User: Fold these one by one.
Assistant:
Number 1:
Amino acid sequence: MQTLTALERAALMVPDPIIVAHDVNQTMYDTLTPNPVDTEKYDLGLVPQDDWTATKPDWAEQLTAIFRAVRVKYPVLPSRPTQRDVAATVTLPLSTTHQLIVGRIFSPSLRHALKRRILGSTTKVPVRHHN
């Protein structure tokens, strides 16, 4: 049986970035279409305030729905966005919101992996002396 190093175990705990990005985009699509965005017009370049005249309360509700849906698969994501998240993303393209959510998923995972790596590197391992 092969024993994994602390770094290898930590790497296994970090989700695949391509899969996470796809899952977040799919959730955003599922949440925003067909209302308020027409299915054929969905694009990460859309800006909520400009493209479907979202107000901050509307966007807060939609963004919260996105966070909750993504959190089902990635529980490290907070259950709701902060008011700062809402204010910062309502006037920016959906790609920014996508990056924000993906970043929030990886931030705790990477912190945990680094913590494990640091703890693993400071743990004393007995040294065998060969005569």
Note: The CA atoms of residues 49 and 91 lie 5 Å apart.
Number 2:
Amino acid sequence: MKYLNLDFIKPNKDCKICDHINDYVCFDCESIQVKEKYPNARWDLPDWVINETVPYNDILEANKGVK
């Protein structure tokens, strides 16, 4: 499990709850932005997390020459 860095999250200018002056992002807008960037992310109170998996090609590359 990996905790996500949310530095990419920005307040939505069209949202009445987000606050651009204080750089506040409401949970709905945060959730939308996280899911767009990380579709498999989930909210695990109090953090966004994603399961770390190793791509199949990386496993093959790491095991080259191993018998």
Note: DSSP finds two helices and three strands in the chain.
Number 3:
Amino acid sequence: MLKPTFIAVTCLALAPTLSSHAVGSDELSANTKWVLTADFKAANASPLLKFITEQINAEKRKQAEAKVAAIQAMFGVDLLNDIDYLVLAGTGSAEKGGVAYVYGSYDRQRLSTILAGADNYSSVQHEGTAVHGWLDKNDNRQKYLAFAKSGLVLLSDQQQVVKDALDVLGGRKPCLTSGSPLSQAFQRSPENIISLYASGLSSIVGEEPKAAMLKQAQGLALRIRASGEDALSADLAVTADTAETAQQVQQALLGIQALTLLRAAEAPESAALAGQAKITLDGKAVGVTLSLPKSLIEKTIRSYQSRESVAEQ
């Protein structure tokens, strides 16, 4: 599976001077089942997310900053400012992973040189575009990258997935239509940080026991927003095939919420978040809204760090 750590490290080879790239559903396969987007530009501009970052344990933050600085010294780039937009998309189950579309401006020659020196490096041509491969020592699996076009790099742990994505971009295979519900994932705004849209969830969640409830859903839409400087908000909508199924999903969510609240003594942070959630039912649609004020976020972080500190002693 394509891991976030692999994506982040590879993205560090992107060079500075970013521009806002147009991102649309027409760049994804018509067979796409799920889409996860992360707006780095919006996140970096958010005062609230900056505040949350500053609340992280000083020692851990220092360690993370040291790692970023070390890679920056090697590649000459800044992870926090050199990526504009990230899209993860898949045509099958989440366990099988998918392809990452990394939008930004980059030094193609520098990145190619770095990859050429990696273990088990290979390069094959696909319709005039080189698909680079190398061994990722983090999970001992082969990874693949292609410079799809100016401002876009494709990443995956499956070579054929990269080739399929190139075929869609080249017009050789059909793309996702603008009328698809998944296209809503690409609606950018200063507040939208993360979006997750999926359809046909039974084929996506696989055999994961914790996601059994989602097998009954036709579609899912999640948006996480930084509402100014005062709150972090999330809106989840789950669409079922029948009203009866939707009611079952709602009851399952209410049950999870109740259990989380009952465990407040042993997991106060989770209980505090669960207490803010509102679960509603409207026909075939189940909605979950969550608004976390800045004060609660700070309190939750402090509580977690305090408990973690005690556990480490």
Note: The chain has two domains: 1-177, 189-313.
Number 4:
Amino acid sequence: MNTSILRGQNIQDFADQNTLDTFENCVKHLIKLMKTFLQLIATPFLALVLLVSNHHLLSQSFSIEVDGINRAYRMYIPTGLPPQSPLVFVFHGYSGNAASIENYSEMNRIADENQFVVCYPQGLKDQWNNPFWNVRYSFHDTQTVDDVKFITTLASSLQSTYNLNPSQTFSTGMSNGGDMSYLLACEAPEIFAAIAPVAGTMMEETFLLCQGSNPMPVFKIHGTNDDITFWEGDIEDNQGYGPYLGVMTSFQFWADQNNCKDYETQELPNTNSSDGSTVTSLKYSNGTNRNQVWLYQINNGGHDWPGSSGNMDINASEEIWNFFQLQLSERVITSTDDENKSHTIEAYPNPFSSSIRINYHVIDKAFVSVTIHDTTGKEIITLVNQAELPGDKSVMWNVKNVDGFKMKSGVYFVRVESGSKVYSQRIIYTID
């Protein structure tokens, strides 16, 4: 099997470095010609404006050492970024690179319009000299790099260095980068608030790791004719990557994981009839913490990033950010039915560094329990356990467990049980 062209991003990722260098030289030559033309017919000021605009959305290259390895990444920070802004990771596919997906995803433009930071990590090279993310493909069984540790270390560093909101970190990626997003959802739910894989899959090993893990909003974009990451999956491992799930199987898994109660489907407008494909939107909603699980089914679509190649009815990057925006509200309302949506939990400040106030409302007289849980579901402490009359209630948590020991920084969950009804909210403890 020629693995050098498998699980990549798109045709752009299969070009070798010489082709990329040639392309860059052509671009440089074109810019030089444009500059000469401007000098002939335009004012110096106009030429300067054009040159500035060409560089307006360029990222910068950085590196960080993890496990003794110098790991590279690119990052784009919009001008005038406010404190506590979101952070979005965008992962390239197998044999791809950070610069390529930065180019074709155009996520910098979305970041500039919506004020968030974009990070494009670079994978290390495997035994065939192809950049990859270690999601445990069969042919990577000798690879030992811990990419989850790389990304979680990098995320914490960026959150701290640039004063980004630790509860608003998201992940997306193409193909192998989408697989990496699934792995992060299962192994690092304390870091990531939602994921949006494009043409990616859940490896069977990732699926088994994810059993009983925390709810996580997920948005999948996948073509039904994808000839690299099969729509129906490959649980028999005929391709040689290792067993992986079909699209609908993983979609249903995440809907169940989030306890979603409502479902709707609709055909999106076919705005570009020449691309040979259409988009069907499938959405689960009303899950734990109001989580949603979406799938954009690209009918007759291939192994592409819609809006850049393949389907042109949607722009994948814009749709992904629209989904991530749903997760930005700190106030969470959950319920067992529509009638109970007036039950709320408010926790502030969130994130917090010393103590947090938890406000909740009881409509009917009931026995009420307020507990704190870690990301595994283990109960840390019970704050309230008594019968309460209707009204607004409040309780403080000082970040200590039942034995009086202070907890480590990370993600926790407030759980309020009022009679037969259960409500929860994610809270984030950070150490100053």
Note: The longest helix spans residues 17-41.
